[in-house]
Design a protein that fits this description.
With 256 residues, the chain is mostly helical. Helices cover 61% and strands 9% of the residues. Helix 2 (17-29) crosses helix 5 and helix 6 (96-111) packs across helix 10 (169-188).
């Protein structure tokens, strides 16, 4: 049973370019089979296509010959689209070339983690013991949010879509690059390993002897890459969920 599309939900439903293509194709051809309709919309992912069909609700229906047609509501939706055409160009789907560039940008940001860079600068020096715990925290926080936020922003801007199918394409590119480099570094036994340590403190323990103490943390490039494998997807998902929650709180959540 199809859901009912109200006037309030009509704009969010029609905002998605794929759903607009579906009703425009039915308006042009009057009636189409499932195969004809998915071909007209040019979607290869049947799961994604079925998802958008479901969201169209009672704007479409099947006739006696099991073909999709527009309902009376669907005809009104077509009139609205004709009278109020989109003024903003929408891609709907992130192109692979864009995903590759965005994914490479995410990879590059993963490599230039400030904790590793600062560690390389400080490799010949010592830092206060109270600062030592900050480095791994900075490394994780940066790796989780910064590359992911950049990839999320660029993906949404290029596709005008919050569909996870689009949002995860760039992180997939970053994931593949990171995985390839990790395998290469493990096979060649090459890595950049940084030790960040605090000054050595001499503690007297008696008249004739004493011992020293210091603290240190270690950061490796392979470790950062391994974090990036998970963070590239997890960070994008967290940013997207935060965005949806914010839009929902503001009353602007739409049917992406």
């Amino acid at each position: 049973m199809s859901s009912s599309v109200s006037f309030a939900s009509l704009s969010p439903v029609l905002k998605n370019p794929i759903r607009r293509k579906i009703i425009l194709a039915l308006s042009e051809h009057k009636a189409l089979t499932y195969t004809e309709l998915i071909s007209a919309v040019e979607i290869k992912n049947t799961g994604k296509f079925n998802y958008h069909l479901k969201l169209l609700g009672d704007l479409i229906q099947k006739d006696a010959s099991d073909k999709y047609i527009l309902t009376a509501k669907g005809q009104l939706a077509i009139q609205l689209l004709q009278k109020f055409p989109e003024t903003k160009s929408e891609h709907g789907s992130l192109r692979m070339a864009d995903a590759a560039l965005i994914g490479f940008a995410g990879f590059a940001l993963t490599v230039v983690n400030p904790a590793l860079l600062f560690g390389l600068v400080l490799i010949q020096t010592t830092v206060p013991a109270t600062v030592i715990p900050i480095f791994p925290i900075v490394a994780m926080a940066y790796g989780l949010f910064v590359p992911s936020l950049v990839m999320w922003m660029l993906s949404v801007k290029r596709s005008n879509s919050h569909d996870f199918y689009n949002l995860f394409r760039a992180p997939l590119v970053s994931f593949v690059i990171l995985l390839a480099l990790i395998i290469l570094m493990l096979l060649t036994k090459f890595t950049i390993f940084v030790e960040i340590k605090s000054p050595t403190v001499i503690l007297a323990q008696g008249v004739n002897w004493s011992h020293s103490t210091s603290s240190a943390t270690y950061i490796s490039l392979v470790g950062l890459f391994m974090q990036g494998l998970v963070f590239s997807f997890l960070g994008v998902a967290l940013v997207e969920f935060a965005s949806r929650y914010r839009r929902k709180r503001l009353g602007k959540i739409s049917g992406f």
